[in-house]
Design a protein that fits this description.
The complex is a heterodimer of chains A (226) and B (163).
Chain A (H helix, E strand, L loop, with lengths): L1 H18 L2 H7 L3 E2 L3 E6 L2 E6 L3 E3 L2 E4 L5 E5 L2 E8 H22 L5 H14 L6 E9 L3 E7 L6 E3 L1 E4 L7 H7 L6 H18 L6 E8 L2 E8 L2
Antiparallel strand pairs in A: 1-7, 2-3, 2-11, 3-12, 4-5, 6-7, 7-8, 8-9, 9-10, 12-13
Helix pairs in contact in A: 1-2, 3-4
Chain B lengths: L1 H5 L5 H17 L10 E7 L4 E7 L5 E4 L8 H10 L7 H15 L13 E2 L9 E2 L2 H29 L1
Antiparallel strand pairs in B: 1-2, 2-3, 4-5
Helix pairs in contact in B: 4-5
The chains are: A alpha+beta (226), B alpha+beta (163).
Amino acid sequence: GQSRLDRGQAFAREMLVAESAAPRAMMREEATTGTTIMAVAYEGGVIMGADSRVSTGSYVANRVGDKVTAIHDSIYMCRSGSAADTQAVSDYVRHYLAAHAIECDRPPLVATAANLCKRICYENKEKLLAGVIVAGYDPYRGGQVFVVPLGGTCAEVPFAIGGSGSTYIYGHVDHVYRPGMTKDECVDFVKTAVERAMARDGSSGGIIRLVAIDATGVERQYITVS
Amino acid sequence: SYHEAYGSRIPPSVLAARLADYVHYFTIHGALRPFGAAAVVAGYDECAQTHELYAIEPSGHCLRYFGCALGKGRQSAKSDIEKLDLLTLTCRDAVRHIAKMILTVYDESKDKPFELEMAWLCRDTDWNFQLVPKDLVAEARAWAQAKLDEDDDDDDDDAEMAS
């Protein structure tokens, strides 16, 4: 998965150096969310964060993109990898989850959303480049975070990081995280970590998008970084 | 299957509804005849954490019950169920009452001898479906038989008094 991005970026760089052929280079590349995404669960809910840079090669196609997308009232998904693939996956998951919630006549489990995502990512693993974090709140089990990386595995975790920028903050998050943090501590944790990743990763940047989900609902905010 | 798609066990309400839809289909499709059988579905809903009982009839009707009966003796069984206090009744006591209801319907002259099979699903079985232990069933059947004989004796006494 990563090699496809590297090859594309190397190609674009070569073209630029050779003859300023940036437009041509861009058209051969698809938009990717080379990214930093993150989610943390605490007892009453989850905090999700992401950067906002969508790049095609080295050109920033959208500097205020929204990588944290809703798939149900209290279940969201952080997207990384191919923008097209992850949008398609999230659309399918949203559709199946809605139909499921109607049949069961109750709010869906976060685990169900994660399972649907996993099914799609696993069954189509040859065609997709999608690393995703599914997180949210359901009244039965509280706040939960599930990570569905490239191959289509699915695991529940206390917190998850993903995207190209995440590699730079593994040490940081492992050092700072402790179980039993409050909501405000989690917000701070996500904000700081994403900021640090954006500082070092060329494919991450723009603003930090933060989404807080709990029993009362969803709060969204964005933070500009200088 | 439900579990493969959604990652958790199917809630009894959904299972019953889907079964009912299937049974109902046989009442609307021209080339098919309705099912000649009814079913009771007992299950534990892991999310809602309640035990539930559903009955699906050949019409495709599906309703949730706290006590239900199907088959030949259902009328008398239903009236017996209504006499019980279902909110406080325990599984163990219910075993006895059910044995009595089944024995009430049994007519020695018309019906063949029968095996009494019982199963339950409760907190003590961890909400798993299990057969009731044979000794409990036998004990319940004996208790029920004794109760019925007692009632018959009372009836005979009343008849003597009357005459």
